Amino acid sequence: MAAAAAKIKLNLEKWKYVYADDIPKQENGFDCGLFVILYAYAIARNEKFFSLPCDTGRKWIKYLGSCFNYEPQKRLYPRMALKELEVVRNIVSHQSIHLNSAITIQLEAVEEKLLHGSEDSRNESN
Question: In what residue span(s) does the Ubiquitin-like protease family profile domain sit (predicted)?
Answer without folding.
Answer: 8-47
